[in-house]
């Protein structure tokens, strides 16, 4: 199969014209994602997760595949900026595996996108404790902590948000999103020197990234206010 997304998309479309089934739709969805056609990808995954039961007869892993497609659909809707559609897909995926942090994070992000920050915090539930002897850290834990820190900030619970940002950075000390968020929270708590230090780190780590652009904006706002210097 060609490596370039546009050729993959073309091949998948041709495959569908000649009777390609779920694999062809999956291939097309992946190509749409790579090309930035997030809504098209989400609709492909939505169709895949809604295949009637009689068409899946004999497929032992059908339920697992459906949950996977719903998860991918939720992610695509988030990229498309449609929080409500992402919420519906995330809830569908969570019916299969309600304890999985990656799915809870998708739901929390979809709710926060709809400005339901309290709902986002609730969707995450109790986060796993890092550093438990003999246990592994969930790969989604840092992202969940950063998301919850931002939600707490939106709710005016800055100390709680700062605690989450600190925990995320204890796990991954160069995490750009966590540094950016901690800087914002520190500024909210009038800890201006600490905020500037975090934002300077963001700029140093990824000078051309979007987070660095935001950090420079935040520093410019701080510089313009004599009470914050």
UniProtKB/TrEMBL annotation:
InterPro entries: TPR-like_helical_dom_sf (IPR011990), TPR_rpt (IPR019734). The lineage of its organism: Bacteria, Pseudomonadati, Pseudomonadota, Alphaproteobacteria, Acetobacterales. This is Tetratricopeptide repeat protein. TPR repeats lie at residues 176-209. SUPFAM superfamilies: TPR-like. Keywords: TPR repeat. SMART domains: TPR. It comes from Asaia siamensis.
